[in-house]
Amino acid sequence: MHNRIRELRKARGLTQADLAEVQGVSRNTINSIEVGRYVPSLPLALKLARFFGKPVEEVFDDRSDA
Amino acid sequence: MTAPTPERSHPAPGRQRPTIVPLVGVALGVAMLLVSWLAADAPGIGLAMLAIMLSYAAVMRYGQRFESVQLLSHDPPLDERHALIQQRALAAAYFAVLGVALIGFFWEIARGAPGAFTLICFVGGLTHMIATVILRRRS
């Protein structure tokens, strides 16, 4: 699943550790989400989208041609 | 327009210090020493096992910079991804033990003498079935 977490995080000037601390997950989890190795649960995906002020569909995209 | 930054919810999970898993490791090491010393009169083996368990507990307690150690040492898991990894690792361990137990079971059957492996297969299989039924009703 593609996502814009890294792009949105960097736009805010946050490190992975900063974002992890705010979201209550480990830095490795944020890294795994950003590289597409781990797909977050719905609550975490919604929490991330809400944090960036975007609809969840703008942050995560499951279409293969995205 | 950017969304306001919310307040930090709580400290990052990776910074938490584990206590339960290292303590259980130490307790198991002491139990191994006592059993081998008192029951088998083999304190040397007991001391070796205690040393192994103390080393394990120390790694679990002080090796938190490595994510694998975090995964092994935190109960409950630090976050949802860690919980998923722990579940998958548990399933892998289950299948490894199951494989050995099945080999042992058929060996015992071939010898006509059901024993420990037969019991392990019975308990494991029954637990798997009961857990499936219970978890299905809960989900």
UniProtKB/TrEMBL annotation, chain A:
Presence of the UniProt keyword DNA-binding in the record: yes
Keyword terms of this UniProt record: DNA-binding
InterPro entries: Cro/C1-type_HTH, Lambda_DNA-bd_dom_sf
Origin: domain of life: Bacteria
Pfam families: HTH_3 (PF01381)
SUPFAM superfamilies in the cross-refs: lambda repressor-like DNA-binding domains
Domain HTH cro/C1-type: 5-59
GO MF, one example: DNA binding
Keyword DNA-binding: yes
Family matches, as PANTHER family: DNA-BIDING PHAGE PROTEIN, TRACRIPTIONAL REGULATORY PROTEIN-RELATED-RELATED
Protein's name according to its UniProt entry: Putative transcriptional regulator
TrEMBL record, chain B:
TM segment ranges: 20-39, 45-63, 89-110, 116-135
Tree of life domain: Bacteria
Keyword Transmembrane helix: yes
Keywords linked to the UniProt accession: Membrane, Transmembrane, Transmembrane helix
Gene source species: Billgrantia gudaonensis
Protein name: DUF2178 domain-containing protein
